[in-house]
């Protein structure tokens, strides 16, 4: 795949030749660091159970990086998902995993607090009000240090380290301080806000400084990279030229150049395509349609139950279309999959009550004995069932108010191997930069959203095929392997200093 990292087939290096540590531990030359490890616990007999007690998490990131983990001296550092539990390093599916422990206080203050009730809403256009608490910030720093220490202890001399996402923004700087020999990349999976909003964060300088510890800071959209560079200039007085930020020490001497650039993430195209062609999945899609009474149009929403996803806006538009008679129960059904997420965070609890209240109201008003207006499913499903849903749905609704990328949009398009179906896509999702032939709309504009839904419902097969073909080509040419290869190649490129 990549060729960006040395491709050794020998066993992991046992050495003590790493600055600052003399203990005898395994050393890695490629390390990925993310809040969560790419595995979930798995009870005996559950789907995916291989007898180890763990199964690989679904998703493109692990698919893209696992081959490199297994081919190089690679390891993944992350939390294993259980508070107050110590898990020793272990291997799973050929990947070495280095667990980081979190206490229940860490989960409350660093994960639910600073990550998901400060940074998440702040970075998503303050759709929900961010909370600023000094105790949360202290925990964020402490936990970021713990992740960095796990790398410092185990990274080989000159190793490449790739840090993922907003939970770990201080790690690049911590690594550079302790281990200037490392090549450090960071990728932000969520949006980066404009400086006018980022300005609210009491610790804005420390966050920018943390990120600037990296050699390369990747974002989903070029507007995110632009926002970051404007913040670096405004809050740290950094000199920014083109995509390069000149990073200086306290004496004002240049320490390194950090580049900021867009690398839009994608999906495992091959896997989704294979599933979409499996007879049993095609049959399951047919069964889903039949169980819903074979309506003319199935509309589908698939989201984590998160206030950034615009589920309320989608339901409002749908209800108005039913109310005005543009759509009729029996002819149309909306399937809304809302997978449980961050359930101990107040805003998520409130959202669940609101969405479930609205669904109950719509169904109470418009259901008939035979047919339902909204089939609401508060579950997570395996990827096979998701692909069957994509195949069953005539119209996919992605109405995010703000979203780093939105991989559901890319999965839907990829699954439609017959080039049929229609995608209604928010212009506030990163995917809108690549999927230009979707029906793009502003979800705050309920009339515009309704128009887009009706255009999708009535779209001719010819127009569907034209749009789908173009979008499928875009995704096929840019799958998640390309994403990781592009990032790692850029990280390993020699920086040409631009002093002009
Ligand atoms: C988003 C974030 C990820 C996060 C995921 C699930 O996609 O970018 O970093 O892992 O949501 O959220 P959770 O809080 O359950 O890890």
TrEMBL record:
Record InterPro entries: Glyco_trans_20 (IPR001830), Trehalose_OtsA (IPR012766)
Q: Which UniProt keywords apply?
A: Glycosyltransferase, Transferase
SUPFAM superfamilies associated with the record: UDP-Glycosyltransferase/glycogen phosphorylase
GO term, biological process aspect, one: trehalose biosynthetic process
Q: What is its EC number?
A: 2.4.1.15
The annotated pathway is: Glycan biosynthesis; trehalose biosynthesis
Under the GO molecular function aspect, what terms does this record hold?
alpha,alpha-trehalose-phosphate synthase (UDP-forming) activity
**Which parts form a coiled-coil structure per UniProt?**
none
Q: Which reaction does it catalyse?
A: D-glucose 6-phosphate + UDP-alpha-D-glucose = alpha,alpha-trehalose 6-phosphate + UDP + H(+)
Q: What class of enzyme is it?
A: transferase
Q: What Pfam families does UniProt report for this protein, alphabetically?
A: Glyco_transf_20
Q: Where is this region: Disordered?
A: 1-26
Q: How does it assemble?
A: Homotetramer.
- The name of this protein is Trehalose-6-phosphate synthase
Write down the species. Answer: Arthrobacter globiformis (strain ATCC 8010 / DSM 20124 / JCM 1332 / NBRC 12137 / NCIMB 8907 / NRRL B-2979 / 168)
């Amino acid at each position: 795949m990549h060729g960006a990292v040395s491709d050794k087939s020998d066993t992991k290096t046992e050495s003590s030749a790493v600055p600052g540590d003399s203990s005898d531990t395994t050393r890695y030359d490629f390390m990925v660091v993310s809040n969560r490890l790419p595995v979930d616990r798995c009870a005996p007999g559950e789907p995916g159970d291989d007898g180890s007690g763990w199964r690989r998490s679904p998703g493109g990131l692990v698919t893209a990086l696992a081959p490199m983990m297994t081919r190089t001296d690679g390891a993944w550092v992350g939390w294993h998902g259980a508070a107050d539990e110590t898990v020793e390093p272990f291997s799973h599916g050929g990947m070495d995993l280095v667990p980081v422990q979190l206490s229940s206080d860490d989960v409350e203050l660093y994960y639910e607090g600073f990550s998901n009730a400060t940074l998440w809403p702040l970075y998503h256009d303050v759709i929900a009000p961010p909370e600023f608490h000094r105790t949360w910030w202290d925990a964020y720093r402490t936990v970021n240090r713990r992740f960095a220490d796990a790398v410092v202890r185990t990274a080989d001399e000159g190793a490449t380290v790739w840090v993922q996402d907003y939970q770990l923004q201080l790690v690049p700087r911590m690594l550079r301080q302790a281990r200037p020999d490392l090549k450090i990349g960071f990728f932000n999976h969520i949006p980066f806000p404009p400086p006018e909003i980022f300005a609210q964060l009491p610790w804005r300088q420390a966050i920018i400084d943390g990120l600037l510890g990296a050699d390369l800071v990747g974002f989903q959209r070029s507007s995110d990279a632009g926002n970051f560079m404007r913040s670096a200039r405004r809050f740290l007085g950094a000199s920014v030229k083109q995509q390069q930020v000149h990073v200086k020490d306290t004496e004002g001497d240049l320490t390194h150049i950090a580049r900021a650039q867009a690398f839009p993430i994608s999906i495992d195209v091959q896997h989704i395509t294979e599933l979409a062609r499996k007879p049993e999945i095609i049959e399951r899609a047919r069964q889903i349609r039949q169980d819903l009474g074979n309506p003319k149009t199935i509309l589908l929403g698939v989201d984590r139950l998160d206030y950034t996803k615009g589920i309320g806006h989608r339901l409002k538009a749908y209800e108005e279309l039913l109310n005005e008679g543009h759509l009729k129960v029996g002819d149309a059904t909306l399937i809304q999959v809302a997978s449980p997420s961050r359930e101990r965070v107040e805003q998520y609890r409130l959202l669940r009550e609101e969405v479930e209240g609205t669904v109950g109201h719509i169904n109470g008003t418009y259901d008939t004995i035979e047919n339902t207006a909204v089939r609401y499913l508060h579950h997570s499903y395996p990827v096979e069932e998701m692909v069957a849903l994509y195949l069953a749905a005539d119209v996919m609704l992605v109405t995010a108010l703000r979203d780093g990328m939105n991989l559901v949009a890319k999965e839907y398009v990829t699954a439609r191997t017959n080039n049929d179906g229609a995608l209604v896509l928010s212009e506030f999702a990163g995917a809108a930069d690549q999927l230009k032939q979707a029906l793009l709309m502003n979800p705050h504009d309920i009339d515009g959203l309704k128009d887009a839904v009706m255009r999708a419902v009535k779209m001719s097969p010819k127009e569907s095929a034209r749009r789908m073909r173009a979008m499928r080509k875009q995704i096929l040419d840019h799958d998640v392997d390309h994403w990781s290869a592009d990032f790692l190649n850029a990280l390993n490129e020699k920086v040409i200093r631009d002093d002009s």
